[in-house]
Amino acid sequence: AYSLNCTRVNRAGVDLLASPSLRLQVGDRLTVVGDPNDIERLGTRLGNSMKRLNQPNLITIFVGIMFGIIVGSINVGFGMKLGLAGGPLVVAILLSRFGYKFKLVTYTSSSASLLMRELGICLFLASVGISSGKGFAETVFNTTGMWWVIWGFIITILPLIIVSFIARGVYKINYLTIMGLISGGCTDPPALAYANNSTGSDAPAVAYSTVYPLTMFLRVVSAQALILCLF
Fold this sequence. Notes:
- By secondary structure, this protein is mainly alpha-helical.
- Among the domains are: 5-38, no CATH class; 142-231, no CATH class.
- The protein is 66% helix and 9% strand.
- Helix 3 packs across helix 4 (83-98).
């Protein structure tokens, strides 16, 4: 209708292929080629307010956190709970899918998203370091502790090597996507941060977000299920 060609769609800092089947969302930025008058008319139709897009929507974030804590504290059966890890994750997925029906805008500007991402990783690493630092030497530097470290290393590294060879050799997945898959499969935000900084590509983040929700959910549920089965 506007005699324009859309070359790409940028969503939350990630460039997507502009295919006819792609559904646009609030905050998507379109790059189009054509007559300047048609571009101006399209901007009037779709909206072209950079200032409005740069304003983060914090209300939806706090609503997601609040309901995530509530859902995480609910007993889902057999004494199992999603906890503070699974509850907010499930609520975030539901809000991203159905939030628009309740007038909740889930769009967050790229700068705000990057700030929260980096701040979250820093707080995560600081929390892990503080909690594990106490008694670290006494726990690790002995026969029992050293064997725990060795077995933990084997359990962590061996599956990653096997999955990497299968992903590359059988399914021909590119290296950047494999980095994201491995990071998401281990639910390891520091590994994702390293992949993003070392590659300068969005491919690891896209692959990470694909597998992370299911892995996190299974990790929370399976750990509690094992405890219930063994005890």
